[in-house]
Structures are given as structure tokens and as C-alpha cells.
Design brief:
The complex is a heterotrimer of chains A (about 220), B (about 130) and C (about 290). Chain B has about 130 residues and is mainly β. Chain B has one helix at about 105-110, and strands at about 1-15, 15-25, 25-35, 50-55, 60, 70-85, 85-95, 95-105, 115-120, 130. Chain B has a single domain (about 1-130), classed as RNA polymerase II/Efflux pump adaptor protein, barrel-sandwich hybrid domain (OB fold (Dihydrolipoamide Acetyltransferase, E2P), Beta Barrel). Chain C is an alpha/beta fold. Chain C folds into 2 domains: about 1-220, Rossmann fold (3-Layer(aba) Sandwich); about 230-275, Beta Barrel (OB fold (Dihydrolipoamide Acetyltransferase, E2P)), CATH 2.40.50. The radius of gyration of chain C is 21 Å and the shape is globular. Classes of the chains: A mainly alpha (about 220), B mainly beta (about 130), C alpha/beta (about 290).
């Protein structure tokens, strides 16, 4: 049983850690992008959005080269006896990069749609940028935040190409559900593959229904 | 307040009193005002300005006018009447519209009615001038 | 005492101009910036609040320097204590009426007093989205006052309201100003509003201050000749026969004037009017 559930537990661990890291890094990054205007902003936005259009295997390949023991990042980390490829930590880093646009884009759009006068009003009321961000800005883009968090989570659960390249298929380490399904199908274990698939299928559906209901409630419509 | 466009023909002053000769819709108008021409930038010969006078200061004459001191005479037709118990408001057209308010008693005495030709008379010192914006 | 002497490049209807705004306002006064839209009125308020930086100049409030280009002083918005009431009210949608005011409040015990002052006690648990324009305006005012501002800045606060609501809120604002004595600057393009509320008015046209003075001095200009003209307030309009009788207060006296339909049809109690007559008409007698 432990062995059977391991890929599912690993998948949700990976998605949870990735989403948490994205929330603390990508939300401030999206806020910064929404409030600045500089030459080359569209280039920064394009780099952020690359994972949406690139084949996951391409991204996975370059991350493998970059993070591998002989890559620019990997060779430095090697000095500290840290290895990223074929480890859970490496998987988290790759997932954060891979899911970045799914957090940044909806949240940035949310920030940009918020009337500037709300921020200005808060400043004129004597509030700092920090207070304004947490008490006025964030609470008023709740639908965008939920969308960003759910999309990042779901996208990390569903990734395959990048995970395969960076993590391989080490049980309890890097063998997440999507890899496990592939392995089971290859081994002709359709029953197990079906079990993993059905769990992901039902969960994905439930998550989307919940998000839609929450967003409708926030925007004041009936469910 | 009746307000009509008028053109300044010429003016002369005596102390602070100004006598303006103007022309409005084919009729000559004389206005006497208390002011200094220096303060009235729009008071220039050939300039357009507004003349203003209160409806209750417009005298109505029907038929031939004998010898009268009044300079300002507008010969026109009554186009509308609003009769009250004491006062009646007359709309008169002499090329443009003006209003006169006189007693209903006078209206009845003169037999005034819509379509009747009358002359509206205004004393020169009742006419104010104003800038046209 | 507010002393503003700044230069700011702004876009106006007739292209880009360097607006030179020199504005002095007494402490506790009620000043109005009057002019067409795009004349630079809102920009002056934003410069004062610190929401926009001037290109050059100095802003001083009660001897304290808020902005000084040469000495590189620029106090940030949140330390300037300017209560800004925005045209779109800018109420926080995630907070109830009470929490909007509470968020801004310096002294928590004043929150309910302020909400009561603007007549919103019964609606204090509602969210802004469920309020009418006039109600939102009231909350925005209470919220701005809760921060205990040195200066209250109102950007066309009543422009989006209907005439009745505008009149009511103008009266309330007047009362609040008289009670609290907070220095107030009102951006407006409504002469009646300026007359009613302000004791000093700056007229702006394409970024240039073209006239300064009391509303009487500024608006009662030489468009009509005459040595006998006064501004008064309409107390009562009554129809009498085919005429109207106006009861006017002029200075400290009350008088009556006969008016015709064309003069009186758009007048209502509370309106400011210019009363004038030819200098030939009044009679005098020694008392």
C-alpha cells in the first residue's frame, strides 16, 4: 500500500512545495512587473512566459544541462556537495521554473486591473507600501490569487517531460504520479495506471469546480 | 431681464456719466450709465455688447405717439400675452423678442391683443450694458 | 499656512505646458481650485499630496518643508497627512464601511463618531459595492477625516451626484468644515459650489492661474456695467401674479426683488445671485 500510494504522495508534496515557493516569489515579482515600466519589460515578460509555449522536453533538457554536475549551476553546487539532478530538490527547482508563468500571469493581470486610486488612497491615509500591499492590494485580487495558486498546483501535478528529464523515475524520490502511470502502462499494469489516473482525474475536476464556485461567490453571483 | 445684442455707434462722457448711442435690430438706442469708460473694456465704437433692461420698465404705447421725451422706441407686434390679475406679460417682436410687464388694467384700456402693433418705450437711464461672452 | 510654489510640465487641451502653480492657503481656510477639465486642478492636488512629483519648486505646510527640489527634500505620501477624497471615491471593496474608516483611523474611538457624523451608522456593515454614489462619498469623506489630515483635498467630490444629493452633501461638508476647521481644498468646475463653500478661489486655465480672490471678487466681474450691484443669497422664491417675488439676503440685510419668469425660473432657495440696478433708480434719504 505504501508503495502504491508513494507516487501520489510525492506528487502532492512536490506540487505543494512548488506552489508555496511560487507564492512567496512570483506574487511579489508579478506586483513588481505590474507597477513598473521600463525598456525591455516585454522581454522579461516573454522569458517568464516561455514555459507555456516550449515543449516540456526542451525546457527539461536545458535545465538538465544547466543543473547537471558539469552545468553552470550544477558545477558550483557540486563544490558544496549538493546535487540537483535526480533529486526531489532538483525537481522542485525545475517545477518552480516550469510553473512560473501560471502564477505570474493571472496575478499580474489582477494587479493591473486594480484601480490605482485604491493604492493611492491607502498611501494618503498614512499607510506604508507594505501595509497597503497586504491589506488593500492582495485582498482585492483574491480571484486572481486563487486562479494563480490553483493553476500552478494543477500544472505541477500534471507535468511529465520536465520531471522525466530532471528527476528520472526513482521510487520515493522522483517518481511522481504522471511518471508512475507511464511506467505502469509500459509494464502492462493497466489496473494500477488506472488507479493513479482516476485519482488525478477526480482531483483535477474537484479543484476546478471549487475554484469556479469560490470566484463566483467573490464576484457576488449566485452559485 | 431683457437682453439684446447692440452695436456701439458712439459715446460721450460727462464726469462719471456715460451717454451711449447704440443700434439694435434696426432701432436706435440711447443708454445713460454711471461708470468710467476705462473700466468697461468692451465699450468701444463699433463693438458689439449686450443691452439689458428690466421687463417692468418697458412702457407700451398703442396708436400714434404724441410728443414724448423717450428716445428708445421699438415698433413691433405682440406675439404672446400672459394675463394675470394685476400684471400682464407681453412678448413683443420688432426683429427680435422683448418682454414687457404692464398692468392688466392698462392692457384692457389699450385693448391690447396678440397680433396688435405697439411701440415699446424704455427710458435711457433704465438701460444697462454688459459684455457679450 | 500652505505655501505651494512649483513647476510641473502637464498636458492640457492646447498641448504640453509648464504649469507654474503658486498657491497660498491659510490654515483652516476653505480654498477652491476652479477651472475647466484639463486645466491642471487635479495635478496641483496630487503635487500637494505627494502622488505626483513636481519638476521644480517648494511645498511648505505650516513651516515644514514637504518638497524642495534644490535641497532634495520629498516627504513620501504616507507621511504628508493629506486626506484625499478621490473622484471615484476609491473605497476598499474588501472592507465594510466601518472597516474602511477604521483602517484609516488614527484614533480608534473616533471611528463611530465619524461614521455617525456622515450619517452612515445604519449602513456601517455594508460593503461599498452595495452603496449609492452619495453614500460612498460620505464614507470616503469620513475615511479621509479619520486619518486626521492637516489638509483635506477633495477632487470634484460631488460631480457624479444628482442636484439634490449634491446640495445636501455640500451643506454637510460646510458644517463639517466649520466644526473641525481642517484646511480644505476643493477642485470644482461649479461656480455655485465654489460660492457656497470656498472663501478663496484660484481660477486655472491651461495650467495658468488666471485669477485669485474671494468668490465674489473673482466671479462678479465686469460683465455687466453698474455701480449698484451686490451678491446675495436667495431665501425664497414665490410666484405672484405673472411675476415672482424673491426674498434675498444681501450682506446682513434681507430684501425683496420683483423678478420675471426668465430671471426666476431657474432659481431656488440657497442659490447665489447677483443683484444689480441702474444707479439712477435707488432713492436715498438721510437717517
Amino acid at each position: 500500500m505504501r508503495e502504491l500510494l508513494s507516487p501520489l504522495i510525492l506528487t502532492f508534496e512536490l506540487a505543494a512545495v512548488t506552489t508555496f515557493l511560487l507564492a512567496v516569489t512570483a506574487i511579489p515579482f508579478a506586483y513588481w512587473l505590474s507597477s513598473v515600466n521600463f525598456r525591455g519589460k516585454s522581454i522579461v515578460e516573454s522569458i517568464t512566459g516561455l514555459p507555456i509555449v516550449l515543449p516540456p522536453s526542451v525546457l527539461g533538457f536545458y535545465l538538465l544541462v544547466f543543473m547537471g554536475p558539469h552545468g553552470p549551476l550544477g558545477s558550483i553546487l557540486e563544490e558544496f556537495n549538493i546535487r540537483l539532478v535526480f533529486t526531489f530538490e532538483g525537481l522542485v527547482l525545475a517545477s518552480v521554473i516550469y510553473s512560473l508563468p501560471f502564477m505570474v500571469q493571472p496575478v499580474q493581470a489582477g494587479f493591473e486591473a486594480l484601480p490605482v486610486s485604491l493604492k493611492e488612497a491607502s498611501y494618503t491615509l498614512g499607510k506604508s507600501k507594505f501595509q497597503t500591499f497586504f491589506r488593500v492590494v492582495l485582498p482585492n485580487i483574491k480571484p486572481s490569487l486563487i486562479t494563480g495558486i490553483v493553476l500552478s498546483f494543477a500544472h505541477t501535478v500534471g507535468e511529465f517531460g520536465v520531471v522525466l528529464m530532471i528527476g528520472g523515475s526513482i521510487p520515493d524520490q522522483t517518481r511522481v504520479a504522471s511518471i508512475a502511470i507511464y511506467d505502469q502502462v509500459e509494464a502492462m499494469n493497466y489496473g494500477t495506471a488506472h488507479f493513479y489516473s482516476a485519482v488525478l482525474f477526480v482531483l483535477a475536476f474537484l479543484v476546478l469546480v471549487t475554484v469556479n464556485m469560490v470566484n463566483r461567490k467573490i464576484s457576488g453571483k449566485t452559485i | 431681464m431683457n437682453q439684446l445684442e447692440a452695436k456701439v455707434l458712439h459715446y460721450r462722457t460727462s464726469g462719471q456719466i456715460i451717454l451711449c448711442e447704440l443700434e439694435t435690430f434696426g432701432s436706435e438706442v440711447t443708454a445713460v450709465i454711471l461708470d468710467s469708460p476705462g473700466e468697461l473694456a468692451y465699450l468701444k465704437e463699433g463693438n458689439s455688447l449686450n443691452i439689458l433692461f428690466k421687463e417692468t420698465e418697458v412702457i407700451i404705447a398703442a396708436g400714434e405717439i404724441g410728443q414724448l421725451s423717450l428716445n428708445n422706441r421699438f415698433k413691433g407686434t405682440i406675439t404672446a400675452m400672459e394675463k394675470g390679475d394685476i400684471f400682464t406679460s407681453l412678448s413683443i417682436d420688432f426683429g427680435t423678442g422683448i418682454t414687457s410687464v404692464i398692468t392688466t388694467k392698462s392692457v384692457n384700456r389699450l385693448g391690447l391683443a396678440v397680433g396688435k402693433e405697439v411701440t415699446a418705450l424704455v427710458k435711457a437711464n433704465e438701460i444697462a450694458i454688459g459684455r457679450r461672452d | 499656512m500652505i505655501e505651494i510654489d512649483v513647476v510641473k510640465r502637464i498636458k492640457t487641451a492646447s498641448g504640453e505646458v509648464d504649469m507654474h502653480a503658486k498657491v497660498d492657503i491659510e490654515k483652516g481656510g476653505f480654498c477652491s481650485l476652479f477651472g475647466k477639465s484639463g486645466a491642471g486642478k487635479t495635478t496641483i492636488m496630487r503635487l500637494l499630496a505627494g502622488l505626483t512629483d513636481p519638476d521644480d519648486g517648494v511645498i511648505k505646510i505650516s513651516g515644514k518643508t514637504w518638497y524642495d527640489k534644490k535641497n532634495k527634500i520629498n516627504i513620501p505620501v504616507n507621511r504628508r497627512k493629506c486626506g484625499f477624497v478621490f473622484q471615484d471615491y476609491a473605497l476598499f471593496p474588501n472592507m465594510t464601511v466601518r472597516r474602511n474608516v477604521d483602517y484609516a483611523s488614527v484614533n480608534k474611538s473616533n471611528v463611530d463618531i465619524l461614521i455617525d457624523m456622515v450619517g452612515m451608522t445604519e449602513l456601517k456593515d455594508r460593503k461599498p459595492a452595495t452603496l449609492s454614489g452619495g453614500q460612498r462619498q460620505r464614507v470616503a469623506l469620513a475615511r479621509a477625516l479619520a486619518a486626521e489630515p492637516e489638509i483635506l483635498l477633495l477632487d470634484e467630490p460631488f460631480a457624479a451626484l444628482d442636484a439634490d444629493m449634491r446640495n445636501t452633501l455640500q451643506n454637510e461638508l460646510k458644517t463639517i468644515h466649520d466644526t473641525l476647521g481642517v484646511t480644505t481644498i476643493l477642485v470644482s468646475h461649479d461656480k455655485g459650489e465654489v460660492f457656497k463653500l470656498a472663501n478663496k478661489v484660484y481660477v486655472l486655465d491651461d495650467g495658468v492661474i488666471t485669477n485669485v480672490g474671494s468668490p465674489e471678487e473673482v466671479f462678479t466681474d465686469n460683465t455687466i456695467s453698474g455701480k449698484f450691484k451686490f451678491t446675495g443669497r436667495v431665501l425664497k422664491v414665490e410666484k405672484a401674479d405673472c411675476l415672482y417675488i424673491l426674498t434675498l439676503s444681501i450682506g446682513t440685510e434681507v430684501g425683496h426683488v420683483v423678478a420675471t419668469h426668465s430671471e426666476a425660473h431657474d432659481l431656488a432657495a440657497g442659490d447665489r445671485v447677483l443683484v444689480y440696478t441702474k444707479a439712477f433708480n435707488p432713492s436715498v434719504r438721510k437717517i
